[in-house]
Design brief:
- The complex is a heterodimer of chains A (1026) and B (503).
- Helices cover 8% and strands 46% of the residues of chain A.
- With 1026 residues, chain A is mainly beta.
- In chain A, a hairpin with a 2-residue loop joins strand 8 (114-117) and strand 9 (120-123).
- The relative contact order of chain A is 0.11.
- The model of chain A is unreliable at 1-29 (pLDDT under 50).
- Chain B has 503 residues and is mainly alpha-helical.
- Chain B is 49% helix and 5% strand.
- Chain B contains 21 helices and 6 strands.
- Chain B has helices at 2-19, 42-60, 63-68, 83-89, 103-124, 132-157, 183-200, 208-213, 217-230, 234-245, 266-271, 274-280, 303-307, 320-323, 331-336, 367-381, 384-399, 418-426, 429-444, 450-456, 487-492; strands at 75-77, 287-291, 316-318, 362-366, 464-467, 470-473.
- In chain B, the strands form 3 sheets. In chain B, strands 1-3 form a two-stranded antiparallel sheet. Chain B has a two-stranded antiparallel sheet with strand order 2-4. In chain B, strands 5-6 form a two-stranded antiparallel ribbon.
- In chain B, a hairpin with a 2-residue loop joins strand 5 (464-467) and strand 6 (470-473).
- Chain B starts with a helix and ends in an 11-residue tail after the last helix.
- Classes of the chains: A mainly beta (1026), B mainly alpha (503).
- The interface between A and B is large, with 94 and 101 residues.
């Protein structure tokens, strides 16, 4: 039922009601002069539902779907008042005109705009917490657009780092810094009031992670709200530590059916390729690498024969494997209401074809969406929502990037003599192109989110609502490794994997809400609610072996079953919550929230926890002493403090697990697999927020600024423990973090003439540090990163490289006694560094480069990030540029480290052209030696690069066709546009893209492992309404 | 009407609330066991024991070569691109190498610790009524596996953290970080476990495969013999080895057969010998304890990756210096090699099925191993004749009984002929020991024994090896004998001190 209240829902409906009544009472009047006309916006678009009123007389009509109205007046002196929510009210003296067409101008800012908060709505005016939102027109509609791309750079303090350029890929989302270090620490997503299952799902074998948000069609979204502070988010208590993102889908407007058709298509290509060696350069480098390692020339003679028919050409495998593709998206919707206006509906269907940029891949998706709101009686109403998605994706695996980079340039994809594809180079190395053609790696997914809600007004002020919701998904993953690519005839190298995974979520929410005004000045609203949620998942994995060809690739073609497993899981959340909002004269605002959550994931003693918050606001612009400052349209100071939680840990983490490992001599083998922790409890975040909302010049310029501090304790984490325990991890409440930062959003209309220039800017800064760790000891979640008390989260840890020894004799170590010797690697008996080896800083000055010389070498957390949108409109043209930016972070270029230190005869990056070759060479790239005995490719500052960038994310031009032209076609609105996504990225990072997300562990991020590369697209869009 | 509907709605929603109180939050796993609902039935403990063997498989499947042989004088690395094998061969070990990580051993130990503690509690609860044999089997084997792992670890790394209780969380995460325990304490635990296990276990099981591929009383005696030899406690080794020799479960697998001219069709006939089948098919009469691998169970020993394939595919060939030590009439040459140096001990020489080739069992202890260790002990103890008797038996299996008609083993000049015997008896203790060690080398090559033999006899300093045309002793600095401890181990637990040589 909340849909009735969202956005401008309430006022419009109230308006209808009130004006109808008024019309009835004024049915009898004297002379009637009929006036008619059309109300449009400044672009000439008709505005339906505008209230047209005769001044001082209770006579009002509403414009219809074409924006036209008919009203009767009694005298030419009458004044008509045109008012419409979100637009400036206009008055017009009738005079002798009988046909009055009016253009309404959008108002700058609407303080009555309604924002969706948990289990209800509030006007912006009354908000005491920090909530940001984007509307439908800001949501990316290009074919590859998603919720993640839409939010990127648009909400101050919300950092979105997409995992890869793959369709449907997930993103790392941090709101106000890393507040939780567990892998699955995503914000909580509420879609039309349903706390949906947001667990990512993975592909088979390569484990690429996909976002469940991909099941929502961006075209169906009306608004997205982000609850940023505890003052708002704690209504979702236990899961709100990482923020809450509320997605509201579109609903039908009162009136005749409106049909909307949108077509978006784009030409998509890889945005950047990495410099690699060509055949000649590769031969030299490969020779060096082998010769330097063994002292003898390598024996793979054909590779070095530049006349050999199979190896004489030079191929850039990036050119072979990436392609330019054509992506498209089609959306169709119908919305409207019944004549009696007691039923309204929005129904849509969508289709998209996102052909990925890697050859031999495919992606198709369909969407369906329906939302119906209805009144059963005056007191009882209901709503039904369905959201359906289905897609199929034939993909490549996760490691394509490094595979394409390391494939030797001398390998020809096709046999130069027969012209057939070569499945295995030199009978052992897989041809990436053959792999793309013959390996099956598919995902098929269904998702259905449905909700049924009824509401009853027990009294006028007291409303009861009850809803049940279902979130169902079935994901099937397939993987097939065919005989043609089997490198040996081992019975297991041909296999077919199949993994269906069913996830369901059932939710029941019941709320009672009461709102009243006491003596006009005191507004009070109360909410009392309860919710029950149960999540189920059931995944089965089967691997068949011994398929014989590439025709039947499923397990139905397998000779036998080699592996199988099944995992069925449940978790339950039982919650009670309440919220009280009070304001005095709309000037002094208070809000109190309390939620009690019980989770089945924790040990018995810690299942339940309470999450309170308190917030207040002072609209000082309403004070009498501010009346003279007319330029200040509205001003509010807000403060909030509260506690939110996080329960992202395995469903049975507290209990430990003994699981099936296989069998030994035909008997079932069970192994202790996971260590339990009975003391496992909620992670809590205490957050303070101080904010100010200022609005100037009738809302033409608006500014919101927030300062926050966030302290997270008892961080839930699968902590690595020494392997001598027999386990590798334990789920544990581990350490504390603190974040503080500042956020700013400014939007304004800079020029407001026929040429209109509006601009909005967001900025988020964050400083975080680890405030406690068990025993104060360092924790290293992976070889790259370090957690140390007092340091920023996720700092890189390694050797500091000072350069490359130009000559053997440059290696001189003088100890404390002045005795001269040479630096050694690893130990006092270790090898001596020579010319071409890396000079590492010897921190403890003992002449040995070892683990005692590791130090902090970089910080992956940006100092600032945000976006800037500029929109220029002139007549029917709109031009906009959206730029997002990230400053002050560093990236560890593991992709490059991996490639250039690969010991299996890879192709190298073009950095190797600068490599040290002989005594006296002064360079920054060490000598190339296979196996890297001197650890030139150890984790060091050599691979730490500046990750700052400015990206022209979207540049768009659109034109809306004149109403006259299109009305002949029966259309009410038509719009065509072109836009470019990811046009240009400015930054110094040498990898594919500075937007690097390396898995989900926030203690170890900013490491570029080479995910599916980002794309650039040139798009065309067409929107038609009739 | 209106109020009726309201009442119904409210009633329903409150039903949902109260029908689902606290018990609703207690959710147990559906497809796995937890610590609380396990150890309720003897069958569960048996499955956990089976899990311990499963863990042992991944601990030692190729590592038995890496730890026990790759650093010695038998193997030649054929692929110049494998950092690990090169480091082993060139004695340039560093703590980055994966094989320096002891994690897998502790997975077996952790599993064993759980079993040892819980089966005793189960018995106290009366869950093993009338099932003494089963209780003894599970407890004894778990103790034996724990001891076996600690023995391997102490041979490889020296002092290691000694953990004998199930690990549970006590709320202090740093409590998991314990330092290395003095190796004497580890040794004491090993011998205590073995002595406790020995009487618990039967000499055989009804399933003949289990007699070979799970621990028996003989298996424990074998580990004990190995332990005592490693500790140079010869008297004890003589006692435990005597028990094995007296154990009717074990006899030397047959190799020599006067009816067959192996030299005529070496590859075909050798595959049919009991000796070759012991390695190829597993579960031979000589086997005391082996790890069973099965294609159907999806377990692989990884021997294909070590030895399988020709040049450029196999990680190791035999050193030609070693291969040339065999007499031309030594049938073990045919059993061990395909070409001169290509190692085929565990694979059929005739028809070689690559599909299932990777599930060859790995023998950890067999009778010949024990006999030759006993021969060593007897030699050192001064019983040269006793040593010769054992040495002779091992040789007779290969060459046949010495006789004037035996082309392989002439009664005067053959390997067990009078000349050889006289020469052996006349040797100094040191020299005689060398002869036995060389026999061990030939008999047990590619079974992960040689490096440990050289270490425990001190010959690791005197044995020379030629790599890249330069001759060097295997080890110069005694601290270099131990392996380094992996950096990840130290990263996770800074209390672990690196072995001196690698600091």
């Amino acid at each position: 039922m909340k849909q009735f209240y969202q956005n401008y829902g309430i006022p419009r409906f109230l308006g209808v009601f009130v004006f109808m009544c008024l019309l009835c009472t004024n049915a009898f009047s004297q002379t009637k002069i009929p006036i008619k006309g059309i109300v449009t916006d400044v672009k000439g678009e008709p505005l339906p539902g505008v209230a047209v009123k005769v001044k001082n007389i209770n006579s009002t009509v509403l414009t219809d779907i074409d924006g036209s109205y008919n009203i009767n007046i009694t005298t030419d002196n009458a004044t008509l008042i045109f008012s419409y929510l979100g637009f400036e009210t206009q008055e017009k003296v009738v005079g002798n005109q009988r046909n009055i067409n009016i253009q309404l101008k959008e108002s700058f800012k609407d303080l009555d705009e309604v924002v969706v908060i948990g289990y209800g709505t509030q006007t912006k005016r009354e908000l005491t917490g920090s909530v940001s939102s984007i509307k439908a027109d800001q949501i990316d509609q290009f074919a590859g657009g998603s919720i993640n791309t839409s939010l990127q750079g648009r909400i101050a303090g919300l950092q979105i780092t997409s995992n890869s350029g793959e369709p449907g890929a997930g993103a790392n989302i941090t709101l106000r810094g890393v507040s939780s270090i567990n892998g699955a620490s995503q914000p909580l997503y509420i879609i039309d009031g349903v706390a949906v299952n947001n667990d990512a799902f993975e592909s088979l074998n390569d484990g690429a992670s996909f976002s469940p948000l991909n099941d929502i069609n961006p075209a169906d979204i009306e608004s997205i709200e982000v609850l940023r502070d505890a003052g708002t988010a704690s209504i979702y208590g236990a899961r709100a530590s990482n923020g809450v993102i509320i997605i509201t889908t579109k609903k039908g407007a009162a009136g005749k059916p409106v049909m909307n058709f949108a077509y978006n298509s784009g030409l998509v290509s890889i945005s950047r390729k990495i410099g690699n060696l060509n055949a000649a350069q590769f031969r030299e480098a490969n020779y060096d690498a082998n010769f330097n390692a063994t002292g003898v020339p390598p024996n793979r003679v054909p590779l070095y024969d530049s006349l050999h028919p199979y190896f004489r050409n030079s191929f850039n495998w990036q050119d072979i494997m990436y392609r330019e593709t054509y992506q498209q998206k089609l959306d169709f919707s119908v919305s409207g209401s019944s004549k009696e206006k007691n039923v309204d509906y929005y129904i849509s269907a969508g289709f998209r074809d996102l052909a990925p940029i890697v050859v031999e891949t495919k992606y198709n998706q369909i969407f369906g969406n329906a939302k119906v709101n209805y009144k059963i009686s005056n007191a009882i109403k209901g709503s039904t929502t369905f959201n359906l998605s289905n897609y199929g994706y034939n993909r490549q695996d996760n490691s394509i990037i490094s595979r394409y980079l390391t494939t030797m340039p001398v390998y020809a994809p096709y046999d130069p003599i027969t012209g057939n594809i070569i499945p295995l180079f030199e009978a052992s190395k897989t041809n990436p192109l053959a792999q793309a053609q013959f390996v099956t790696n598919d995902i098929k997914r269904w998702r259905l989110i449905g909700k049924q809600e009824v509401g009853a007004n027990i009294t006028k002020a007291l409303e009861f609502k009850s809803s049940i919701a279902l979130d169902f998904s079935n994901t099937e993953a397939f993987y097939y490794s065919p005989p043609i690519l089997a490198t040996n005839s081992s019975g297991r190298s041909v296999f077919s994997d199949y993994r269906p995974e069913l996830r369901t979520m059932f939710e029941n929410v019941n709320t009672l809400s009461y709102s009243t005004k006491i003596k006009k000045d005191h507004s009070l609203s109360l909410l009392l609610g309860q919710s029950y949620q149960i999540f189920n998942s059931n995944a089965t994995f089967v691997r068949g072996i011994g398929n014989i060809d590439n025709q039947i690739t499923s397990i139905s073609g397998s000779a036998s079953i080699a592996n199988f497993s099944q995992s069925e899981q449940q978790n339950v959340l039982l919650s009670y919550f309440t919220r009280a909002n009070y304001n005095y004269k709309g000037k002094y605002l208070f809000s109190f929230i309390m939620r009690r959550d019980g989770s089945s994931r924790f040990g018995e003693r810690y299942q339940n926890a309470y999450f309170p918050s308190l917030s207040g606001g002072w609209r000082f612009s309403q004070e009498s002493f501010m009346k003279n400052y007319k330029w200040l349209y509205d001003g509010k100071i807000r403060a909030s403090y509260g506690i939110t939680g996080n329960q992202s840990i395995g469903n049975y983490a507290s209990q430990g697990a003994i699981t099936r490992a296989g069998s030994y001599l035909g008997e079932l083998s069970l192994v202790a697999d996971a260590l339990g922790n009975n003391d496992l409890r909620w992670e809590t975040t205490k957050q303070f927020d101080l904010g100010v909302d200022l609005s100037f010049l009738k809302g033409r310029l608006n500014l919101t600024a927030d300062y926050y501090t966030k302290n997270s304790d008892d961080l839930l984490f699968n902590v690595q423990i020494p392997s001598q325990t027999g386990y590798s991890i334990i789920p544990f409440n581990f350490g504390s973090l603190s974040n503080q930062g500042f956020e700013l959003s400014v939007d304004g209309i800079i020029i407001d003439k026929a040429f209109r220039w509006s601009s909005s800017f967001t900025l988020g800064t964050n400083r975080n540090r680890v405030t406690s760790l068990p025993g104060g000891e360092d924790y290293r979640p992976n070889p790259f990163s370090l957690a140390r008390v007092g340091e920023a989260v996720g700092v890189f840890y390694g050797f500091r490289a000072l350069g490359i020894y130009a000559r053997d004799e440059d290696n001189v170590y003088i100890d404390a006694n002045g005795v001269s010797s040479q630096y050694r690697r690893g130990s006092a008996n270790g090898d001596i560094y020579k010319g071409g080896d890396v000079i590492y800083e010897d921190i403890n000055d003992d002449g040995i480069i070892d683990i005692n010389d590791l130090q902090i070498i970089g910080n992956p957390t940006p100092r600032a990030f945000g976006g800037l949108q500029n929109t220029f409109a002139y007549k029917r043209f709109t031009f906009s540029v959206f730029v997002n930016y990230v400053f002050g972070n560093q990236i560890f270029n593991q992709l490059n480290r991996n490639q250039d230190s690969n010991q299996f005869d890879p192709n190298y990056s073009d950095k190797q052209l600068r490599r040290w070759r002989q005594q006296g060479d002064v360079t920054d790239i060490p000598r190339l030696v296979k196996g890297d005995p001197m650890q030139s490719y150890a984790i060091s500052s050599r691979f730490v690069e500046d990750g700052s960038f400015i990206r022209f994310q979207n540049v768009a031009l659109s034109y809306s066709l004149p109403a006259k032209t299109i009305s002949k076609l029966g259309l009410t609105n038509a719009n065509i546009g072109i836009n470019v996504q990811n046009l240009l990225t400015l930054g110094s990072y040498t990898g594919y893209d500075p937007e690097v997300s390396s898995g989900a562990n926030p203690l170890g991020f900013g490491i570029d492992n080479g995910a599916f590369p980002k794309t650039r697209s040139y798009n065309l869009s067409l929107n038609v309404k009739f | 009407m209106k109020t009726k509907i309201q009442h119904i709605l409210i009633a329903i929603s409150f039903l949902v609330v109260f029908a689902s109180c606290n018990s609703v939050l207690d959710k147990d796993p559906l497809t796995e066991y937890t610590y609380d609902n396990f150890w309720n039935e003897p069958a569960q403990a048996s499955a956990a024991l089976s899990g311990a063997y499963f863990r042992l498989q991944s601990t030692l499947n190729t590592e038995f070569i890496s730890y026990g042989e790759a650093r010695a004088d038998i193997l030649e690395v054929t692929r110049p691109d494998n950092v690990t094998t090169l480091a082993l061969q060139n004695n340039t070990l560093n703590p980055d190498l994966g094989l320096t990580d002891w994690t897998n051993f502790y997975r077996v130990i952790g599993q064993a610790n759980l079993i040892i503690k819980n089966v005793q509690e189960m018995r106290a609860k009366g869950l093993y009524v009338n099932q003494d044999a089963e209780y003894n089997r599970v407890l004894g084997q778990a103790l034996g596996l724990r001891a076996l792992c600690y023995l391997y670890m102490v041979k490889v790394w020296g002092a290691v953290p000694l953990i004998t209780e199930p690990v549970i969380s006590n709320g202090d995460i740093n409590a998991f970080k314990t330092p290395r325990t003095d190796s004497i304490q580890v040794y004491n635990q090993i011998v205590a476990d073995l002595l406790r296990a020995q009487p618990l276990l039967p000499v055989s099981y009804s399933d003949a495969r289990k007699t070979r591929a799970t621990l028996t009383r003989g298996g424990i005696d074998a580990i004990l013999t190995d332990y005592y030899m490693w500790r140079n406690d010869l008297d004890s080794a003589l006692v435990t080895s005597a028990r094995i020799l007296g154990n009717s479960q074990y006899r030397l697998a047959n190799l020599y057969d006067p009816a067959i001219d192996y030299l005529a069709r070496p590859q075909v006939d050798i595959d049919n010998t009991e000796y070759a089948k012991m390695f190829i098919d597993g579960f031979g009469p000589e086997s005391i304890f082996e790890m069973a691998f099965s294609f159907d169970e999806g377990t692989t020993s990884g021997l294909i990756s070590l030895f399988g394939g020709g040049p450029g595919l196999a990680q190791y060939f035999a050193k030609s210096e070693f291969a040339s030590k065999f007499l031309p009439t030594d049938l073990r040459v045919f059993a061990n090699f395909k070409s001169d140096v290509q190692i085929f001990k565990m694979f059929p020489k005739g028809t070689f099925d690559r599909v299932t080739a990777n599930d060859k069992n790995v023998i950890l202890y067999r009778l010949a191993d024990i006999m030759l260790m006993r021969a060593e002990a007897l030699t050192l103890k001064g019983d040269r004749n006793g040593a010769w008797a054992l040495l002779g038996k091992v040789r007779e299996r290969v060459f046949g009984i010495a006789s004037s008609t035996n082309n392989y083993n002439n009664d005067i000049t053959g390997p067990t002929g009078l000349d050889a015997k006289a020469a052996f008896l006349a040797l100094s203790v040191q020299e005689a020991h060398d002869v036995i060690l060389e026999e061990r080398q030939k008999e047990l090559c590619f079974e992960g024994k040689r490096w440990f033999d050289l270490v425990r006899t001190g010959r690791v300093f005197t044995t020379k090896v030629t790599v890249n045309n330069t001759e060097r002793p295997l080890v110069v600095n005694a601290e270099n004998i131990l392996f380094p401890i992996n950096l990840n181990i130290i990263r996770q637990n800074p209390l672990i001190e690196q072995n001196n040589f690698y600091k």
